[in-house]
Amino acid sequence: MTALFLVDDYTLRTVALGAVALGIVSGALGTFAVLRGQALLGDAISHAALPGVVLAYVLLGTKASLGLMIGAALTGFAATLVVSAVVRTTRVKDDAALGIVLSVFFGIGLVLLTWVQRRPDASQAGLDRFLFGQAATVLRDDVETIAIVGALALVVVALLWKQLKLLAFDPEFGASLGLRMRATELALTALLVVAIVIGLQMVGAVLMSAMIVAPAAAARQWTNRLGVMTIVAAGVGALAGATGAVASSQVERLPTGPSIVLVATALVAVSFLFAPRGLALRAWRARQARSQLGTHVVLADLAALEQAHGGPGRAHPAATIAVMVEADATAALVALERDGLVLRDPEGNWALTDRGRSEVLRR
Amino acid sequence: MTRGGDNDGADVPQALSHPAIEVTDLTVAYGEKPVLWDVDVEVPHGTLTAIVGPNGAGKTTLIRAILGLVEPAAGRALVLGGDYADNRRRVAYVPQRGSVDWDFPTDVLDVVLMGRYGHLGWLRRPGRKEREAALDALRRVEMDAYAHRQISQLSGGQQQRVFLARALVQDAELYLMDEPFQGVDATTERTIVDLLQELRERGKTIVAVHHDLQTVAEYFDRVVLLNVRLVASGTVADAFTEEALRRTYGGRSALFGTNGR
Of A161, A170, A178, which has the smallest distance from its Cβ to B95's Cβ? Predict the structure, then answer.
């Protein structure tokens, strides 16, 4: 990435800086949303931000990013309040409530957007970039706003670290300590709103929630510590944001949201496969454990077999042993043969050697 | 302490003239369904009390109400002679082990340190002093070797010990525990019993939700029998009778007919 900052291209640098800033903030905040099982809340907030953007433009008559962000934040936050009100007062479960609120707010946003675009008013052009994001339209001022607002959000996270950790891990216990868990939850929601709103212009309402979920999901695979996870998620967010945004600003008509999300998804896939908690390493470890266990078990089974049928030196087919250990025993048998503990006879059956027999007794 | 008498109980601190817990006319409802109905319970200082009752009897709710985690519909709970909010630093809480996600990215020491968060206030982070207290608490539950173990790698018994250690670093006078023996191995059960009795010897008060009727008399000295309404409460000898148990469990079970699960 560092090479990109050295490129003497003003637009490119602006875009990359903005994307890094929003990736850091959404990655860090996403950590808490993901750990609390609230990934869908981010989706509701980002979709609900769209009507706020359009309303702010209509009411304020400006396309300055701060004004639009405030509008987006207000409707985004309002959506979370509606969700909790629906859950509290009806029998609708929270995932359904999130789905309903998301589509209603987003629908209103689309209606407003269409209406504004039909007005005889040229200055509205480009509002639709809030759907899928367009990095190339991001200006230096926008980047400054993103950086300042994002930095403030991160400072709040640092200050509320203990509370946020308890909120995510054991809120009842936190409340019993007198830490104000409900206030902390509200603060976290507000911070999520901030993280989402600063990314709207670049990533767009439709896909912004991926910037909340993907970096945290990837980071979880690399570490077992909350602090490290938060930092790794911020890093993944920054990398995905910058790569995707720069790619989109270089390729004409490539919307930024989708390209950032594709990069983030690739990082998630790599993490799921190759991180310490990832599939590849886990499978390899399980195989190691199985093969070690395998030689013990196979040796003991051979001893049991020869006692049951035919006494010392009696050979048995690999398939018989495989049934006993409930796995293919060939690899273990070959390993044991290498150590001189078993022998293969001309028919391909396996028998214990004298050393193998004393090894069984020793164990 | 300036009270008239010069003998027997005169040097008992003011606070001890109240019971450790005093629940009066407590009614709690979730929606329209009462979970606890007009419950009165008194827990004296320095005792080890079991809360016993069938599923849905309101045992957990009673503890949550004492901790101020649910708003009662009527009645109140006094803790150490006052409101819980005023005395919370002298109370420790062990929630049900299953109430948290043990795949959370943290290690054993970090979980135990959470027991100090209430004393640290809003902004301070745990430092060396807190870390030493946490290691000490882990030693008392024989988990010090696991301090840096990721919590997802713990067995059920080890998880429970970690929760107990977290309560120990709270350095409280009153310990409220929700099913500390739930799903633990025999060794852990012994460790926990010894620990609870040691706390009681040091003058602490412990109240625990308990499921195994057969060990109530052995482990505890007092019992609260609950089934939405209070059935009986007092010393094990007085309150833990066949008759009271039949009323608690609705005739379905006698003393040795049920053992929780």
Answer: A170
Instruction: Give the mean pLDDT of chain B.
Output: 88
The complex's ipTM works out to 0.88
List, for residues A322-357, the tens digit of each pLDDT value. 777 666 677 778 888 888 888 888 888 888 888 888
pLDDT tens for each residue of B15-43: 457 899 999 999 999 877 889 999 999 99
Please give the Cα distance from B77 to A118 (Å, whole number).
63
> Shortest CA distance to B53 belongs to which of B235, B238, B212?
B212
Residues 6+ apart with CB under 8 A from A295: A332, A335, A336
What is the model's pTM? 0.82
Burial class (CB in 10 A: 0-12, 13-18, 19+), A200: buried
What does the pLDDT read at residue B5? 40
Residues pairing with B174 in the sheet: B91, B205
Q: Which residues contact B200 (CB under 8 A, 6 or more apart)?
A: B46, B47, B48, B206, B221
Radius of gyration of chain B (CA): 19
* Segments in chain A below pLDDT 50: 1
- DSSP, res A123: G
Q: Is B104 on the interface with A (CB under 8 A)?
A: yes
| Per-residue model confidence (pLDDT) at position A254 | 85
**CB-nearest partner of A177 from B105, B117, B123:** B117
Asked if A36 and A168 touch (Cβ cutoff 8 Å), the reply is yes
* Strand duo A350-352 + B21-30: pairing: unpaired
Chain CA centroid to CA A82, Å = 26
Structure-token match 């709690």, residue found: B28
User: B65 to chain A: which residues are within 8 Å by CB?
Assistant: none
